[in-house]
Design brief:
By secondary structure, this protein is an all-alpha fold. It is 91% helix and 0% strand.
Length: 108
Amino acid sequence: MKQFCRDHEAELAAQEPSPELLEKHLRKLAWLQHERLIHLIVVVMTVIGELFAADLAILHEETNPWAALFMLGLAVLLGFYFMHYFFLENTVQRWYHLAEKMEQEMKL
């Protein structure tokens, strides 16, 4: 995904703004927004799983070792999900600005 975004931004930088290029950019922006939505849903579900594991580890002592291991694994996974989600969010915001810049340059 990161390479996809880098390649697209390099393509935008190498070409003059045109309606076709803007259309292509907006289409890829829609794909990125969809990817961001899917990752948001995954992050929320992982947080719910983490809370469930914490509940098992704290309130049900008989499951404590396994729940703690499960909670640790989900915490690591959640860290990577957050990093990727923030990358997607920041990229979408940057692409919004690129689209606005392209629109302004084409009006001149």
